[in-house]
Amino acid sequence: MVERFLIDGGSSVDVLFLSTFENMGLNWSALKSTYQSLFAFNSCKISPLDVVTLKVCAIERFLDVDFIIIDCESSFNAIMGRGWIHTMHGVTSTLHHVLRYQSKNDTYTIDIKGDQASMRKCFSTTLKGIDRSTIVLTGDR
């Protein structure tokens, strides 16, 4: 069981942080090499360490997910990106903090709901030690 996943429709890959990989006690021999470069939201280039394929269970769906392993600090353990969301046939709502998808037999919908208190805690953890005056928000007005 791994908690504190960020479901991020803006992420082009699924990310597992190195600290999470180590805490899970996974076998290093399961890693596959990758030469893929990533660019963070601040346009900095990040070099992934390797790729690992893990089985992810989301309520009643089990999917094999290729996670890019990166070594950086995060208050999250993993980021589930667009590929995973699309494979789940999921629809996300940032307003309602929910991922909705159909059951395996398409007879009902399943909601994975975010917890506002947990999200605030993760956000606060992320901001610790950061000079808040350097945070710049950009976008259309």
From TrEMBL:
Protein name per UniProt: Uncharacterized protein
Organism encoding this protein: Parasponia andersonii (Sponia andersonii)
